[in-house]
Amino acid sequence: MFDLILIDGNYLGYGAFQRARPRSVKDLDVRSLNGFFNTIHTLRYQYPRAHLITLWDGRSWRYQHCANYKGNRSKPNGTPSQRKAHKERLLYKSQISILKNGLRALGIKQMIASNMEADDLAGMLTAKNATLHRMLFVTGDKDWLQLLVCPS
After folding, report:
1. How far does the chain reach from its first CA to its final CA, in angstroms?
2. pTM, full prediction
3. What pLDDT band is residue 80 in, cutting at 50, 70 and 90?
4. Which residues, in sequence order, are bridge partners of residue 55?
């Protein structure tokens, strides 16, 4: 059994968006909603005693120290594949407020910091809750691996 489950909100939401076929309701693209909330439901069902916290990315402090941080990502005026990725990111971002409102309605705590990414928040929560025996990280972001190898 897990005591604490930390969920990378953007990774889970954008991943669900990318795996789903285009779907809209009243002209709103809703691709990420089904996969995102199915995963939340599964986690609550499998680990009913665990405390769930969804972590969201803010604008990282890393941008101040590295001008080209994430510079290889989608660009509105880049190559055709970068333009397509940029358009998809914008569609996903239009769904984030719905995801957050849904989590709020379900009573699931959320965290965001204007100058940190989700993995930074996860690091702080991991250190703060080091006495917990079992934590589950729901992400595919390799930056989170540092939480498994850093001694507390």
Report:
1. 22
2. 0.82
3. confident
4. 8, 111
